[in-house]
Amino acid sequence: MREAVTTRNLSYSYPDGTVALSNINITIHEGERVAIVGPNGAGKTTLLLHLNGVLESTDGEVKIFGKNVNEAERSEIIRSVGVVFQDPDDQLFMPTIFDDVAFGPMNLELDEDEVRRRVKNALDRLGLTGYEERCSHHLSYGEKKRASLAAVISMEPRILVLDEPTANLDPKSRTELIGIINELNREGVTIIVTTHDINAVPQLVDRVYVLNRTIIREGTIREIFSDAPLLRENHLEVPEVFKLFEMLKCFGYNCEELPLSIDEAIKDLTETIGTNGGHIHLHIHEHTHEEMEKVKHKYRYDHH
Ligand SMILES: Nc1ncnc2c1ncn2[C@@H]1O[C@H](COP(=O)(O)OP(=O)(O)OP(=O)(O)O)[C@@H](O)[C@H]1O
Ligand SMILES: [Mg+2]
């Protein structure tokens, strides 16, 4: 697969001198689903804003499909990379939702029928049909969040970048949004997200970069979740189901790979029951208590 996003030695400081990014090297291939995780203030948003040229660094380079963002035609980059901002108020600025979602396609100078088709599709997809004449200021946060995604997918980008897409969404909207992102990925769209929603990570991506001003680590979800010191240093955590199975291991449960999701947990339990003559054997042994305390301690942020 060709490289969709490549950064080489990308560094960025804000005008006030805040060093936000230092020497970032990432390579994301077309069709991949990747998360960038890290603590508040790690530079995640700053990095994403470099991918479509909202921010331009003079130090290092960003390439989209092999073309340097600072040298390529502006319109070409905007067409390829859609960025859904962390704050939907940064995305929606037109008098109506129709205008907001039509804004991108209009700027691509598409004809009116095509603009209407794209707006209709995008609103349909996000469950916002009927919102055309509404004003974004009068939408709920979750509605705004969906409208800002609609405003980006109407551009039909090859690379979709989402900054905290699931933050503040109710469970139904959250699940639907994850579904839409994955549907777009199946259609070939490259997905790059930042998130603090650790339970969403296994549903959303296959690979993770840990960012803390610079890239601290790159790996599969399991590799990242299995590294306790890495998690602690970067204010990360693991899904509850992952912790629960770590606890079960203290009770003698045998599992090779800790499950990342409920579905994986069910699969693991089913297999274990199958190979154990129809039941699971748990017991309290000499070290159960001690091991459990260790697991608990591993994920605690209130003391070290
Ligand atoms: N416009 C700005 N001017 C100066 N400093 C800024 C500006 N925007 C962000 N920063 C600083 O740059 C650093 C990185 O911020 P950024 O918003 O990229 O972090 P983040 O990883 O997205 O955090 P969060 O998880 O809270 O969204 C922070 O120290 C922040 O204070
Ligand atoms: Mg951010």
Fold and architecture overview:
The protein is an alpha/beta fold. It folds into two domains: 3-92 and 155-233, Rossmann fold (3-Layer(aba) Sandwich), CATH 3.40.50.300; 240-298, no CATH class. Helices cover 39% and strands 20% of the residues. The strands form two sheets. The protein has a six-stranded mixed β-sheet, with helices on both faces. Strands 2-1-4-5 form a four-stranded antiparallel β-sheet, with helices on one face. Strand 7, helix 6 and strand 8 form a beta-alpha-beta unit. Helix 3 packs across helix 4. It is globular and about 70 Å long. It starts with a strand and ends in a 6-residue tail after the last helix. The mean pLDDT is 95. Bound molecules: adenosine-5'-triphosphate (ATP) and magnesium ion (MG). Adenosine-5'-triphosphate is lined by residues 14, 16, 18, 20, 38, 40-46, 86. Magnesium ion (MG) binds next to helix 1.
What's the gist of this structure?
The chain is an alpha/beta fold and 304 residues long. The protein has two domains: 3-92 and 155-233, P-loop containing nucleotide triphosphate hydrolases (Rossmann fold), CATH 3.40.50.300; 240-298, no CATH class.
